[in-house]
Specification:
Length: 185
């Protein structure tokens, strides 16, 4: 049974950016979405969550499907008095399993974290939130090699727990290590 079924989707904003694109996503599957800059990979993910206009085609979702989206550019957090623990609580993500080097940063305000630390906590909030499908847009951006290696392990664990993932990335080695198959735009 497919959690998502995308048929001949053309999407964008004021004009079409991506499509037509067709793909399906099964439970526990990791599908990579690849292609050069500007072909609409991020727009495709936005269309799946209602953030982009659908010009034609359709998106079929299982009833009650829960989707979690990690955006390529994190939202602005400057001046917002939230710490990493607040972010995880807000999304329902469990801090259990975080790498040891991030536990000391749980009580730090988000606007005081480095770009890589903030990116990792945003990723963790999406990956460990209660979701059936996780959409990741360039998840390795701003991460050091140790964090990327840990992320690979977390993605494989998330898949083993039954969640499905759509992953957008230009990192060929990363995609080869975590994806069951790839769709090129």
């Amino acid at each position: 049974m497919n959690l998502l079924e995308v048929e001949a989707l053309t999407a964008g904003y004021s004009t079409p950016v991506v499509g037509p694109l067709s793909l399906s996503l099964k439970r526990g599957e990791v599908v990579g979405v690849t292609g050069p800059n500007g072909v609409g990979k991020s727009t495709f993910l936005a269309a799946l969550t209602g953030g982009a206009r659908i010009f034609s085609g359709k998106i079929g979702k299982c009833p009650g499907l829960r989707i979690s989206l990690q955006q390529q550019r994190p939202p602005a957090v400057e001046g917002i008095p939230f710490c990493a623990t607040d972010l995880l609580a807000l999304t329902g993500a469990d801090p259990e399993g975080l790498p040891p080097w991030f536990f000391s940063r749980l009580s730090a305000r988000l606007d005081k974290l480095s770009g890589g630390q903030l990116h990792f906590f945003m990723l963790w909030a999406c990956l460990r939130a209660p979701a059936d499908v996780v959409l990741l847009d360039e998840p390795t951006n701003n991460l050091d090699p140790e964090s990327v290696a840990f992320l690979k392990t977390v993605l494989l664990r998330t898949k083993a727990e039954g969640s499905s993932l759509l992953v957008v990335s230009h990192e060929r080695d990363f995609m080869g290590a975590v994806c069951d198959r790839e769709v090129s735009l």
